[in-house]
């Protein structure tokens, strides 16, 4: 009997050693930054928003943040650092809803006493959607402070292979100012956009799920509390420049009016805060009618992103209490009157 017990114990010890080794390697390298910032001579690939954003928010050095959807992923944070004299981190989530912003800002607020700048990209459709909606199912063990559930991370085969062994074998890493970039992997241009474009059918409309009441709850629950809690932070709120085909879809789906009313409500509401400025890129006609700037109906090139960076940092293209109504009205009329057949069939 003693012999059997010894054999079982020996087996358990031998079986446990590899797990301890894996956990130790992942914990020391820490590719998701759960315990510490990147090692000085380490190789890191940062391409996993859901699993790496919380660690970056906890352990990286920064005093400014970029928040939003894939509309923000092509921003070069080094340009903001250079122009504003800040230290920015990009905490994007593709298809981000307001609750996604809340998830990561909750961590930022726990870790940072002072934020100089917060850049918030607003995708109007997602703010009109049901409060509480998230873009993905979150790995909650990476967002909480409970070390007891960290085994999901420390013993992950995928983390070991994809984020430890492969980067170190290739001695590869991604520069932090370039994280989440997708522009270099995409094809841009009119032909690319129209090849994949089809006018939607009315039954695809989300209008029945959109409402200004949803938008109000989303703002008041997930965004405004952070603006109020950071009176010394300059919030740069901006609406990104979707292509005209996006607005054609909005007309066809009968969603234009609720989207315009939503943008008007957000603009008027947030203008009431002294620490908020609002930039409206939706009506940059020279950009949005030129399909060569896009890879699909919404995603624009890095050249456009760099132009937006310049304007955001210099305070250009802001809307004011005096002009926001006129600008929104003029853009609404422009969208309604635009010749979309000409755009689709061969010109601007």
Fold topology:
Blueprint: H1 2-29, H2 49-59, E1 64-68, H3 77-84, E2 88-92, H4 98-111, E3 117-121, H5 124-127, H6 151-154, H7 157-170, H8 190-195, H9 212-229, E4 234-239, H10 244-252, H11 256-270, E5 276-280, H12 285-288, H13 302-314, E6 318-319, H14 324-337, H15 340-345
Parallel strand pairs: 1-2, 1-3, 3-4, 4-5
Antiparallel strand pairs: 5-6
Helix pairs in contact: 2-4, 3-13, 4-9, 9-11, 11-14
Characterise the protein shown here.
48% of the residues lie in helices and 8% in strands. The chain is α/β, with parallel strands linked by helices and 348 residues long. It has a single domain, classed as 3-Layer(aba) Sandwich (Rossmann fold). A six-stranded mixed β-sheet has the order 2-1-3-4-5-6, sandwiched between helices. Helix 3 links the parallel strand 1 and strand 2.
Write a short abstract of this structure.
By secondary structure, the protein is of the alpha/beta class.
Keywords summarizing the entry:
348 residues; alpha/beta; Rossmann fold; six-stranded mixed β-sheet; 15 helices; 48% helix; globular
DSSP summary: helix tally = 15
Radius of gyration: 23 Å
Element-level helix/strand string = HHEHEHEHHHHHEHHEHHEHH
CATH superfamily: SGNH hydrolase
Mean pLDDT across all amino acids: 92
Extended strand count: 6
Remind me, CATH topology?
Answer: Rossmann fold
């Amino acid at each position: 009997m003693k012999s059997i017990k010894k054999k079982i114990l020996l087996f358990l010890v031998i079986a446990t050693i590899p797990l301890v080794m894996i956990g130790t390697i992942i914990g020391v390298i820490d590719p998701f930054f759960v315990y510490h910032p990147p090692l000085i001579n380490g190789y890191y690939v940062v391409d996993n928003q859901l699993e790496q954003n919380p660690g970056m928010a906890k352990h990286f050095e920064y005093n400014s943040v970029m928040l939003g959807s894939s509309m923000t992923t092509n921003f070069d944070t080094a340009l903001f650092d250079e122009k504003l004299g800040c230290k920015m981190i990009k905490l994007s989530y593709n298809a981000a809803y307001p609750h996604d912003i809340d998830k990561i800002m909750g961590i930022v607020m726990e870790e940072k006493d002072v934020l100089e700048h917060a850049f918030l990209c607003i995708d109007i459709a997602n703010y009109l959607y049901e409060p509480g909606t998230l873009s993905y199912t979150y790995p909650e063990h990476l967002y909480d402070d409970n070390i007891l559930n960290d085994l999901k991370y420390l013993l992950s085969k995928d983390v070991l292979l994809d984020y430890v062994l492969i980067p170190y074998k290739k001695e590869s890493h991604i520069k932090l100012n370039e994280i989440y970039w997708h522009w270099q992997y995409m094809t841009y241009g009119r032909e690319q956009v129209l090849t994949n474009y089809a006018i939607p059918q009315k039954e695809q409309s989300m209008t029945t799920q959109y409402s200004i009441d949803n938008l109000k709850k989303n703002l008041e629950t997930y965004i405004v509390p952070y603006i109020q809690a950071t009176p010394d932070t300059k919030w740069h709120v901006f609406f990104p420049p979707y292509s005209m085909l996006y607005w054609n879809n909005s007309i066809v789906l009968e969603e234009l009016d609720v989207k315009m009313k939503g943008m008007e409500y957000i603009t008027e509401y947030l203008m009431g805060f002294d620490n908020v400025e609002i930039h409206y890129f939706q009506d940059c006609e020279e950009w949005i009618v030129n399909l060569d700037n896009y890879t699909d109906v919404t995603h624009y090139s890095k050249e456009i992103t760099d132009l937006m960076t310049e304007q955001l940092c210099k305070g250009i293209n802001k809307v004011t209490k005096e002009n926001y109504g006129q600008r929104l009205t003029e853009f609404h009329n422009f969208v309604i009157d635009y010749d979309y057949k000409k755009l689709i069939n061969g010109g601007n």
